[in-house]
Specification:
Blueprint lengths: L3 H10 L4 H6 L9 E7 L4 H18 L5 E7 L14 H9 L3 E5 H11 L10 E3 L2 H10 L3 E3 L2
Parallel strand pairs: 1-2, 1-5, 2-3, 3-4
Length: 148
């Protein structure tokens, strides 16, 4: 059996980050690009824009198998993940195209502290403690972070 190091060596010589390859938890072996879309704004225009960018990237790369996209929502942007969001049909469509939606639990806790009510998020939300830390981690893993 070959050592995992032997498989990593060619990647080092090609200038690729071995950690990015090893830590990537997406299930898209043919993805040409790994992209994180950052959403910190809660206004309708910003939310619509991030969803449009995700859709345009799927089209550009020729389908969801060829691009790995994650949308990280925090602060006022977390409202994108509320079940009554007016974009729920667009979100549902993107979910069928394997776009991941990540929600910041620090934002959830802040909203709960301020309002006395914990906001509900769509079932497909991937919870992370800190949305901004998720952006940093993904950047370290080789993802391109974009704020549309």
């Amino acid at each position: 059996m070959r050592s995992p190091l032997l498989f990593a060596l060619p990647l080092v010589f090609l200038g690729l980050d071995c950690a990015a390859v090893a830590d990537d938890d997406s299930d898209k072996p043919f993805a040409e690009a790994h992209i994180v879309l950052q959403l910190a704004d809660g206004d309708a225009e910003s939310q619509s824009r991030v969803l449009s960018v995700a859709n345009n990237l799927i089209k550009h790369y020729g389908g969801p198998d060829f691009v790995d996209i994650e949308i990280v929502a925090y602060g006022p942007g977390l409202s994108l993940l509320y079940p009554d969001n007016p974009n729920k049909e667009r979100i549902s469509s993107l979910l069928t195209n394997e776009i991941r939606f990540v929600g910041c639990l620090n934002t959830v806790a802040t909203i709960e502290r301020k309002t006395g009510k914990r906001p509900q998020l769509i079932a497909a939300t991937i919870p992370v403690q800190t949305g901004v830390a998720r952006l940093v981690e993904r950047a370290q893993q080789g993802y391109v972070v974009i704020r549309p």
